[in-house]
Fold this sequence. Notes:
- 4-CDP-2-C-methyl-D-erythritol 2-phosphate binds at residues 14-16, 41-42, 63-65.
- The protein is an alpha+beta fold.
- The chain has a single domain (19-159), classed as CATH 3.30.1330.50.
- 27% of the residues lie in helices and 31% in strands.
- The longest helix has 14 residues, at 80-93.
- The protein starts with 6 loop residues before the first strand and ends with a strand.
- The model has no long low-confidence stretch (mean pLDDT 95).
- The chain binds cytidine-5'-monophosphate (C5P) and magnesium ion.
- Residues 14, 16, 40, 46, 49 line the site of magnesium ion.
Amino acid sequence: MTSPLPYRIGYGxxxxxxxxxxxxxxxxxxxxxxxxxxVAHSDxxxxxHAVADALLSGLxxxxxxxxxxxxxxxxAGLDSRVILGRCLELVREGGYAPANVALVxxxxxxxxxxxxxxxxxxxxxxxxxxxxxxxxxxxxxxGLAPDHVQVRVTVLLARVxx
Length: 162
Ligand code: C5P
Ligand code: MG
């Protein structure tokens, strides 16, 4: 059934445990000087996973685990840009496109402020949006969760006419 809504909201979250000896990727951007990276079956990019889940949720299409199970051997080390690309395709097939996106990354270290523009640009490119429609916020956990990265994302999807 086709939705009558001109706009739909999507929400997504992701969290990964951090460990030494792994690279840290956020929004398709490698984070230099990160002492630890995400423990994950794929490349562990929690931003891209949360954005992909937000896209799917906006169209009530479930979540990325249904499309890319973390138990499937072929998904080992998977580039999360592939996951996001597929979710974007599903949104477009459903007659919508992202209009703007807002995300919060909770991570104690390293400081991400200097990379805000890089992450916004990367996400804008991946989503086909101007950078002015990509809001990127950072928070520490105030030491409550020093061993993990947490990402929360809202996305607005606009119906594509035609
Ligand atoms: O979490 P808190 O309010 O203490 O964050 C203070 C500032 O530190 C925020 O302005 C945020 O942008 C920045 N920050 C950062 N990198 C992080 C966490 C927070 O640049 N990993
Ligand atoms: Mg993940």
